[in-house]
Amino acid sequence: MIKSLNKAIEILELLKKNPSGCNLSQIYTTLGIPKSTAYGLLQTLLFKMYILKDDNSLYKLGPALIFLGKVAATQNKLQDIAYPILKNLTSEIKVDSFLMIPTGYKGCVLERFDGEQSVKIIEKFGNEFFLHCGATRKAILAHKSKSFIDEYIKNVIEDKRNKITLTAEELEKSLEKIRKEGVAVSYGEYAKGTIGVGAPIYDYNNNVVASIGINLLESNELTDKKLEEYKKIIKEKAEEISKSMGSSK
């Protein structure tokens, strides 16, 4: 356990119990920590706007926590809405299905259901990879703002430390196709012989907040016609979740 982080959380919890605010003395005395430690933690929390300091030198919870709370509430609502839809999807088409959320420049698996032909080696719960990797993550990236995509290209694609062979032009071309079709398809980006299909999910502000997708095994049975059927199903399920989230898209 990181002691400084734990103490910062204790400060927030103390302020939650005292909505009228606490001064520096009350904080370090109540928590039993050195005055200098309390002061340093408070300055960090102030800088990040997790707390505020009023004219009477009382510390109170800050506006940054409101945003975190809204995001947490959205994600909880998202899971509640998506869970039965994703479960029914897997039962219906018998393949792996996923709920993905963006975490900065990466996408994280928030929910997963295994189909009868489970691709067990990829996309486990909590997995994080860059947003250009795979259809389910690309479905999110394609519908991010232009400024976000520009930053992504600069900080991820063009950063030589990431050793990415994909060019900015190739990425932008693929994202444009996804936006046009409303669904993403990828081939062998996680494991050879697999195909991914993903579609975006929007919230009540029509901002992309997640995506759902499936992983398929390449086979002679997976015809172009069958793949188009999968694309249609995934797009419809994503739209169903988006509407339940309050989106007008």
UniProtKB/TrEMBL annotation:
Q: Which residues form the signal peptide?
A: none
Q: Which example biological process does GO assign this protein?
A: negative regulation of DNA-templated transcription
Which Gene Ontology molecular-function terms are recorded?
A: DNA binding; DNA-binding transcription factor activity
UniProt keyword list? DNA-binding, Transcription, Transcription regulation
Q: Where is the IclR-ED domain?
A: 64-247
UniProt KW Metal-binding keyword: no
Please give the name of this protein.
HTH iclR-type domain-containing protein
Ranked from the top, the taxonomy reads: Bacteria, Fusobacteriati, Fusobacteriota, Fusobacteriia, Fusobacteriales
